[in-house]
Structures are given as structure tokens and as C-alpha cells.
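Technical note accompanying the year-one report. For the benefit of new consortium partners, we illustrate the data format agreed upon in the data management plan: each record pairs a sequence with a C-alpha cell string. No post-processing was applied to the example shown here.
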Amino acid sequence: MARTFAYCRVSTADQTTENQIREIEAAGFTLEPKRIIEETVSGSVAAMERKGFARLVDRMESGDVLIVTKLDRLGRNAMDVRATVEMLAKEGVRVHCLALGGVDLTSPAGRMTMSVLNAVAEFERDLLVERTQSGLARAKAEGKALGRPAALTPEQQGMIRRKRTEGFSLGALAKEYGVSRAAIQRVERRAALD
């Protein structure tokens, strides 16, 4: 007999999965508490790198149903979501997304929906890359300095190089100048390249 699981994810500890559970139940799905997987993890983490989701996948069997309220609950981006849905489909697990009308993403209609969403996501990503590159080229042409501003002035960098030759430790200099040890190491590397 098919079992129904719900995967409910929030990004921060001050958020709650309660609304997601209510939404799933309002859609007509009966959930046993032991089959509701709640997790607090950033959406930027791939689905299979999430501890709760990985445990859920281990528990599910062919014929089971996984319910999510939104597609972004399943992965960090369109490609991760598609890979996750395909992996579950191979295991015989159906995936329903309420935000897409409850469509089973492993069905022919669901696969078509996923293809369209992936195409739109890829198009948006390409547009973002194009706009970013255009903006960087414009800023460079206007003579603007790109990147993060230097944490240390040229005078401070000179003092750091001198103090390092005198035997000052990375930690002592980092503390003195209020920067990380890595920032001190970058000053040394730049000096070696000059």
C-alpha cells in the first residue's frame, strides 16, 4: 500500500513548517505524523546534502508518494530539483507539488511541466549572466574599481610586509590590523609577485 510522506523545509529557525503541513492537509492528503519530515536548512543546499531529506529518501519505497508545497522545497535550483525528481521516479516514488496544482512530477504531464520550468530557469540564468557581464563591462569602461575594496591601505600593507620580515606572526598582525590571517597572507603573496 502506498504511503504518503510530506517534506516541509524552512530556511531559518525563526520560521515554522506549520503552514506547509496545513496546506498539504487542506489539499486532501492524510499525513501520519511519523511521515512528516520537517527540516530547517537553507534552500541553497542541494537536496541530497540535507540530512532530513537524505533520511527521507532512505525510508521511501516504490509506490510511495512525496508531497511538497512548492518546487523550491525539493532543491537549490531547477537542475537540482529535476535531478531529485528523476532519482525519486527511478525508485518508483511519485512526487506531487501543490503549487503546480498537485501534479505528479513523475507523470508525463509532470515531466513536461518540469521541462518548461527548467527552460524558463535556464533562460533567466542566462539573462542574469548577460546583465551582470554588461554591467561589469560598463563599470570598467567608466573607470570604476571592480571587486571588494581593499581591507588594508597601501601604507598598512607596507608596514605588514616590513613587520613580517622582522618576525611578527600572522595572528599578531591580523589582530593588530583587524583583519583575517588570510588577508595578511594575501599581502605577502602580492609582495612576492611584485
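Partners are asked to follow this layout when depositing records. The longest strand covers residues 4-10.
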